[in-house]
TrEMBL record:
<dbReference type="InterPro" id="IPR001128">
    <property type="entry name" value="Cyt_P450"/>
</dbReference>
<dbReference type="Pfam" id="PF00067">
    <property type="entry name" value="p450"/>
</dbReference>
<dbReference type="GO" id="GO:0016705">
    <property type="term" value="F:oxidoreductase activity, acting on paired donors, with incorporation or reduction of molecular oxygen"/>
</dbReference>
<dbReference type="InterPro" id="IPR002401">
    <property type="entry name" value="Cyt_P450_E_grp-I"/>
</dbReference>
<dbReference type="GO" id="GO:0020037">
    <property type="term" value="F:heme binding"/>
</dbReference>
<protein>
    <submittedName>
        <fullName>Cytochrome P450</fullName>
    </submittedName>
</protein>
<feature type="binding site" description="axial binding residue">
    <location>
        <position position="421"/>
    </location>
    <ligand>
        <name>heme</name>
    </ligand>
</feature>
<keyword id="KW-0503">Monooxygenase</keyword>
<keyword id="KW-0479">Metal-binding</keyword>
<keyword id="KW-0349">Heme</keyword>
<dbReference type="GO" id="GO:0005506">
    <property type="term" value="F:iron ion binding"/>
</dbReference>
<dbReference type="InterPro" id="IPR036396">
    <property type="entry name" value="Cyt_P450_sf"/>
</dbReference>
<dbReference type="GO" id="GO:0004497">
    <property type="term" value="F:monooxygenase activity"/>
</dbReference>
<keyword id="KW-0560">Oxidoreductase</keyword>
<dbReference type="InterPro" id="IPR050364">
    <property type="entry name" value="Cytochrome_P450_fung"/>
</dbReference>
<keyword id="KW-0408">Iron</keyword>
<comment type="similarity">
    <text>Belongs to the cytochrome P450 family.</text>
</comment>
Length: 517
């Protein structure tokens, strides 16, 4: 670097630091307390590499349930109290309904991935489109398709030793049929590529917190420096794959005879003025979330293996209500509270999203003598909330009965406010019908090899499957699913053989309600 340029750079830096350090600033409320960090970079190099929710919980015990972390110019507020969640966050939706904008996510999604859009008109248009097809009333209209997928799942498990593959196909097929009008009777490479891509997005996102990407993320001016090319190339490859897939699926769905999301989006007045690619992304970005139910049933299976006594209680209730001469149906739901309680306890005991989904503030807000600045990232440490012994007695114990003893126990498993999970009603239906039928038909327990039990490493099963921490995916594990009796097997086979398998006929029964009245 020429000497004159070097002198200019040093002089400019000195001037900036002198103004930053010595200019008197107006008095303002402090940020919530947090661990002390290094000058300029803050807590950036203290960030835990694995299971950050555990470290945040440890820090919160020292600094309080409302805690600040500073990463360069970025401020993150960590919440570790249900009181604060409901008293501050839920009551101030207008402040906490935006999302942080990581540069890698923005580049991959072309600024059109609904779940990551910032608060504003664009996000509200996307939300209105999703609400029209994911409302409680619409969720009920998908039950014919839900039932068909559950029947295929039951039948597949009679001959397949890969329960994860069967669950993945079932969950994705449900999404594909209602979104694009086409089932997935057999898993294709596309599904595996989607699963790998979702995991890769998490990995690429976390790569932005290393090397040059640290500077690019937390010191925006340094985006102009060389050294940012590697993650951009990866992000662009993913973006191209998504765009090609979403447009292909969207265009094919428009040609099908019966109703589907693509046809609904293409004709609704709420989508007026939206380009084809944006409509395709509005639907397609749900594809990633479609893998969630598959992961949640795997979690339920893991809990069943580790807690056979609780599993037996649930099965006894299913047998008492349903009997052994028919499969569970939707009408049985209110009479099978242990099915729901088992699922709720599984998500509390081993949260799927231990740090929930980050929010971003749209304006500064004060709370109990502290200020939370505009554009701060807000994280709820759900893992710590669900282990609060003052709320959940003996929190390490797996005890579904706690949800029946106290139905008002707090939770944020579906988020809260305007950014709450839009697919929760379809998801709840998926979990009920599949759990009720799976545990009616099968016993789930440890796998055996050569007559010997295949033990599972408990600690390893509590850690995420991947190095990333955005989702706490259960690691791969072996389990035994055995049909409970000959009558169960006959009914499973018979119900599948006689089921209506033509998705166009099933979708013809779905009539979209008028939400404009």
């Amino acid at each position: 670097m020429p000497l004159l340029s070097l002198v200019c750079v040093i002089s400019g830096a000195a001037l900036f630091l002198s103004r930053f350090l010595f200019i008197r600033r107006p008095k303002q409320l402090p940020l919530p307390p947090g661990p002390p960090g290094a000058p300029l970079v803050g807590n950036l190099f203290q960030a835990p590499k694995r299971n950050p929710w555990e470290k945040y919980a440890e820090w919160s015990k020292k600094y309080g349930p409302l805690m600040t972390l500073k990463n360069g110019n970025a401020i993150t507020i960590v919440v570790t109290s249900y009181d604060i969640v409901f008293d501050l966050l839920a009551k101030n939706n207008h402040v906490f309904s935006s999302r942080p904008q990581p540069i890698v996510i923005e580049r991959i999604g072309l600024g059109m991935t609904t779940s990551f859009l910032p608060d504003g008109d664009k996000w509200r248009h996307h939300r209105s489109l999703r609400r029209a097809v994911l409302s409680p009333a619409m969720a009920k209209k998908y039950r014919g398709v839900q039932s068909l997928e559950s029947l295929q799942l039951l039948n597949e498990l009679r001959s397949s030793a890969d329960f994860s593959q069967c669950l993945r196909r079932s969950a994705v097929s449900l999404f594909l049929v209602i979104a694009y009008g086409k089932r997935l009777p057999v898993e294709t490479p596309e599904v595996l590529e989607m699963e790998d891509t979702v995991a890769h997005i998490g990995a690429v996102s976390e790569a932005c917190f290393r090397g040059t990407e640290i500077l690019a993320e937390f010191f925006p001016i340094l985006k102009l420096l060389p050294g940012n090319g590697a993650w951009k190339k990866k992000a662009d490859r993913i973006s191209s794959w998504y765009t090609e897939l979403y447009l292909k699926r969207f265009r094919e769905a428009l040609k099908l005879p019966s109703w589907n999301w693509a046809k609904q989006y293409d004709t609704t007045k709420n989508a007026k003025g939206m380009a084809e690619i944006e409509l395709a992304y509005c639907i397609g970005s749900v594809y990633e979330a479609a893998l969630t139910p598959y992961e949640l049933v795997r979690l339920v299976f893991l809990c069943a293996v580790f807690h056979p006594e609780e599993t037996a209680k649930m099965q006894r209730q299913i047998d008492e209500v349903v009997g052994r001469n028919r499969l569970p149906t939707w009408e049985d739901a209110d009479k099978l509270p242990l099915v729901s309680a088992f699922y709720r306890e599984a998500l509390r005991w081993r949260p799927w999203t231990p740090l929930a989904t980050p929010r971003a503030t749209t304006e500064e807000i004060t709370y109990k003598g502290y200020r939370i600045p505009k554009d701060a990232t807000v994280i709820i440490n759900q893992w710590a909330l669900d282990r609060d012994p003052a709320i959940f007695g003996d929190p390490e114990a797996f005890r579904p009965q706690r949800w029946l003893d106290n139905p008002d126990l707090p939770h944020v498993r579906y988020g809260y406010g305007h950014r709450g999970c839009p697919g929760q009603h379809v998801g709840k239906d998926y979990m009920f019908i599949n759990m009720a039928r799976l545990f009616w038909a099968y016993n789930v327990g440890y796998a055996y090899e050569g007559g010997k039990k295949v033990d599972l490493d408990f600690e390893a099963m509590m850690d995420p499957r991947n190095e990333i921490s955005f989702f706490n995916q259960v690691p791969d594990f072996r389990a035994s699913l055995t049909i409970r009796d000959a009558q169960s097997e006959r009914l499973v086979e018979q119900e599948w053989l006689t089921a209506e398998k033509d998705e166009q006929k099933l979708l013809a029964e779905v009539e979209v309600l008028d939400f404009t009245k």
